[in-house]
Request: fold
Amino acid sequence: QTVVTQEPSFSVSPGGTVTLTCGLSSGSVSTSHYPSWYQQTPGQAPRTLIHSTGIRSSGVPDRFSGSILGNKAALTITGAQAEDESDYYCVLYMGSGISVFGGGTKLTVL
Amino acid sequence: EVQLVQSGAEVKKPGESLKISCKGSGYTFNSYWIGWVRQMPGKGLEWMGIIYPGDSDTRYSPSFQGQVTISADKSINTAYLQWSSLKASDTAMYYCARRYSSSLYDGFQHWGQGTPVTVSS
Reply:
């Protein structure tokens, strides 16, 4: 079974730029995987940031952007803020209506 | 305003059955896929399966196929996740979420508040 991979943790300085990635244990990620990205803070339900690779969800600040970088999906935060410290999850569509979450990245802003 | 309101916390014993719910409002319930997501304590999100209430087309992650049943009652705009025989390992928070569109591939746009399920003897 194909595994969706994410960096377990990442840190960024306030005001800095960070790129989190979402890959596959076998093969490359493309727009046909319709990558989506979710933010979750402890004790809260997930919040949708990005869908279909790079479309921002309503109300999401434009410092969040999604793309394909090389063979992975990517979430870039430009000008990170303290409130961006969260867990970030990607989801990839695998076909036949089935999607898979990545293991998540814990982002620290310090 | 789109809302997904889930049923309340559950405490059950191993072997018991359970059905939790997710009621949608503020949109045409029949026309959007609703999915279920598991989050075990201290762990990440897991995609369980989805249902299209309009025709009850249901897709399951291989990891959850046969372990749970997803259903929907479009007359009351409610989706369900049920277990016939709970295990301690089913202890988790369960989220329902609605997809952006009627497509099979799109991400989740709206989320329920979560239903915590505790299974303990």
User: Anything to note?
Assistant: Residues 92 and 98 of chain A are 9 Å apart (CA to CA). The first strand of chain A starts at residue 4 and ends at 6. The two ends of chain A are 36 Å apart (CA to CA).
